[in-house]
Amino acid sequence: MNTSAVPTLEIRPALEIRNVSLSFKGVKAISDLTFQVERQEICALIGPNGAGKSSLLNILNGVYVPDSGEIVFEGEHFRRMQPLEAARRGIGRGFQNNALFSGMSVLDNVIAGLSRHSRVTLLEEAFRFPRALKEERQFRERARDVLHLFDLDKHAGTIVGTLPYGVQKKVEIARAIVGTPRLLLLDEPLAGMNSEEKQAIAAVIARLNKELKLTIVLIEHDIGIVLKLAHHVVVLDYGRKLADGLPETIRDNPDVIAAYLGSDRKEVAA
Ligand SMILES: Nc1ncnc2c1ncn2[C@@H]1O[C@H](COP(=O)(O)OP(=O)(O)OP(=O)(O)O)[C@@H](O)[C@H]1O
């Protein structure tokens, strides 16, 4: 049999970080970092404070431009990309501290997540042209569908700032995915939560990954949750990659234990 005639399926990773470096006025935030994220995996970035985790997310959604190296997203190479372009290419982002409009309703906050996808001009919007009205209707419907997915229907008209923190975090993640990204970046989505809220948000993240087939890169300090939630863990330390692999191999890696897990290890191994 002539195997060369058999078509091969090219299965590319969702995301490749290739030799990326970034510094701020001489301070190295990221040094020659290389790793890849497979499609539909949850990849957790862990590491001590100042390790470069948030800086990397900021590169991935176009806020920072690396000094060198490149990013390959779904086979397309780039080094410089505006946040608007990142959103249009299918990269969604949630932030470390809620970046919601606290005086606006839940529904309007989620609709705001679609503004970068708008096709209407300011003029069309100002004069309420039919195209603008149609888009507004479509955005509203899409936002309502997403609220339903998050079981937030009953809060649609509620002012976001009046809701408990755990619910606000759900709204923020809803806003990050309303534009149907294929890669979702989450910066400490469980920060500041009690353990019940953490479990609820971790369950939401697992569902988004499974049901919407979303590739997710998240930063998280709660190692217990990371080991349960992530398929792949990348450990950063002083901007360098210290380890990269399956959660269980990371948990047992002596360098990681020394640099980061420390006394948490017993709890992690339990
Ligand atoms: N905008 C900036 N200007 C100057 N230095 C910065 C900037 N952003 C990050 N840094 C520096 O880059 C390094 C990496 O910071 P970064 O916030 O990426 O780390 P991190 O791993 O996300 O930390 P944390 O867990 O505390 O959020 C640190 O030394 C930090 O002080």
Automatic annotation (TrEMBL):
Source organism of this protein record: Pararhizobium polonicum
Protein name in UniProt: ABC transporter
Record bears the keyword ATP-binding: yes
GO molecular function: ATP binding; ATP hydrolysis activity
GO CC annotation: plasma membrane
InterPro entries in the record: AAA+_ATPase (IPR003593), ABC_AA/LPS_Transport (IPR051120), ABC_transporter-like_ATP-bd (IPR003439), BCA_ABC_TP_C (IPR032823), P-loop_NTPase (IPR027417)
Source species taxonomy: Bacteria, Pseudomonadati, Pseudomonadota, Alphaproteobacteria, Hyphomicrobiales
Domain ABC transporter: 15-263
Keywords: ATP-binding, Nucleotide-binding, Transport
